[in-house]
Amino acid sequence: MIDPTADLLPEGLEDRLPRSAAAATRIERAMLAAMDAHGYDRVRPPLIEFEKSMASRTDGLRTRNMFRFVDPRSLRMLALRSDMTAQVGRIAATGLGAAPRPLRLCYAGQVARMTGDMLDPRRENLQIGAELIGSESAAAAGEIVELAIDALEAAGAQGISVDFTLPDLVDTLAAKEMPLDPAQVQAVRRELDAKDAGGLKAAGGEAYIPLLYATGAFDDAAAKLASLDDGGVLASRIDGLRQIADRIDGRARLTLDPSERHGFEYQTWFGFTIYADGVRSALGRGGTYRIGGSEEVATGFSLYPEELIEAVKAEEPLPQAVFLPLGHDREAAARLRGEGWRTVAALSEGDDAMALGCSHRLEGSAAKPL
Amino acid sequence: MIDPTADLLPEGLEDRLPRSAAAATRIERAMLAAMDAHGYDRVRPPLIEFEKSMASRTDGLRTRNMFRFVDPRSLRMLALRSDMTAQVGRIAATGLGAAPRPLRLCYAGQVARMTGDMLDPRRENLQIGAELIGSESAAAAGEIVELAIDALEAAGAQGISVDFTLPDLVDTLAAKEMPLDPAQVQAVRRELDAKDAGGLKAAGGEAYIPLLYATGAFDDAAAKLASLDDGGVLASRIDGLRQIADRIDGRARLTLDPSERHGFEYQTWFGFTIYADGVRSALGRGGTYRIGGSEEVATGFSLYPEELIEAVKAEEPLPQAVFLPLGHDREAAARLRGEGWRTVAALSEGDDAMALGCSHRLEGSAAKPL
């Protein structure tokens, strides 16, 4: 089917028509409700901020790919948000700087970026997430991973899997057990990301090759990783991962890819990516980090339910509606709405109940099937 | 109290912290639910569009006050939306161009503008509205006014009043009953807007002076207006207003200011502004119009609940939460959440239930008051 709006909207931007909008609204609310149930208060930051403020709050957030423009009031550069995590970090450090810790905040909103990428050409996304501010412990990480699973399940995702990683693995090992020159660290990280044993050897990181095989199903991979850790510098991290895994216990397939760093460049000890059956790309990711500026520790996740919405929108139930003919009993119509019915009122004789999506018609004071 | 975020956000932009965010979310959902109950399907257009497309869809929408920037993909100018009505008009004309009429659509989202004004310094607003596409009849206008009242009542507004106007009044009269040169029309409109009898006389619009007095409580003002309409050119309009007024009957205070045109420059025969007790400015406005480009007739409203949110946020109820001590019964906690409780889990021995806003504590499998 040709989308008649295709040439009317810029590449990577689209309208959500009724079914897709209903699915997005339902999923957004289900996720917010799951986070609320665990004590996470929603905050709503603005669409626009000073570019400098966006940039300083999370090291990982590049403003290069944000839509930017000059503020006619301050003559400073503004940016349209491409990520809400940095905004929530700013709120935690300022407006809620004096609130007791741990501080639990959540958010949902549209974010935009100047260019899409090969994996995802979208330039606007719905971002939904939670931040647990003031802790980066295994307990905090366990709560956050479980909450991400709760939120996805509430939204209807099935067959959830979670892939754990240790973002600062190379730094930790290079400092002690598997020494590397500072110049080598970058190269070793790069070859680990590329899963290239030959490249690792060439980069002087031969000792790191076994890490390439400490991946896969969580229990096995964690055992392999532990067996490589002669000096025990990873012991607290592996123990933390096991605590998180115990907590998830059967609610999701768990895997470990301890040297995966792509997308986790600015996390501290723990990171995770989350997937669901029937959805090709990752639905979100999270981990432990430090808030830029305040340097407070935090743990959180961001979900991007776009593909989940696409996957379910065809089955999104349409509301049953009662057609209200001209001159209908208006009190009866109001009563039906109060009972949860949707009503569609005739404006003229020509209005067609079936064409307008009605399954019933108000006759007297009762809804009769069409 | 000094807002510690004040210097961190650009003028006219602000964070909603938890209470304000909760009020905004509750009000947004209540309004969407009211519109859904009357058969209005939500659509979700993107934050950004081609500037040209935004400009062409409603005559009244000036892109001058929109944040604009060059699209690196198309090299065309994009604009951040300052109004969603134009977007819904585009959807009605394109993606839903083939959907049966009347077409009922609603929306809720953030809009932004480059500069605020004296009455409202905000540069970002929550806009919520409904569009009834394919009709501008008195029946359509009655449904739309009643729906705006329903939506505001659902959001908790009290003491609603609605001010009607006839945006094309001068054009209608000038064409027949009170003839004016095309050059005089502008001046007469301006002096009517200024409520300046002397100015009207000077502009050659002496015949229009009585219109200044056909204002106030609806029934009286409508009767005065009808008495001025010797030739009956306003008869169908006055009859339409009376049909709408009959329908509202007691649900809102009704007034008429037939020559009020400010903000209704691009409406057709009917316009209205809506207010509530305790809220200084108008909460929204609406009326009949033609969709730019397709020229299809439509009737709709936009609400800006910002001040309503501010008015209620202090009383926004905080959820009761149950503190979950370390080592708590996790099934009992999940069961409490299933029953609608909010839980807050301890991450360490130091976590303070009261400071974290809890009213109860999980002991065994039961929530006990603190």
TrEMBL record, chains A, B:
Record-linked Pfam families: tRNA-synt_His
The UniProt annotation places L-histidine binding at 83-85, 113, 127, 131
The Gene Ontology CC terms held by the record are: cytoplasm
What's the domain of life for this entry? Bacteria
The species this protein belongs to is: Croceibacterium atlanticum
Task: Name the gene that codes for it.
Answer: hisZ
Which keywords are on file for this protein? Glycosyltransferase, Transferase
Name the GO terms of the biological process aspect: histidyl-tRNA aminoacylation
Q: Name one GO molecular function term.
A: histidine-tRNA ligase activity
Q: Ion transport: is it a keyword of this entry?
A: no
The top of its lineage is:
Bacteria, Pseudomonadati, Pseudomonadota, Alphaproteobacteria, Sphingomonadales
Q: What is this protein called?
A: ATP phosphoribosyltransferase regulatory subunit
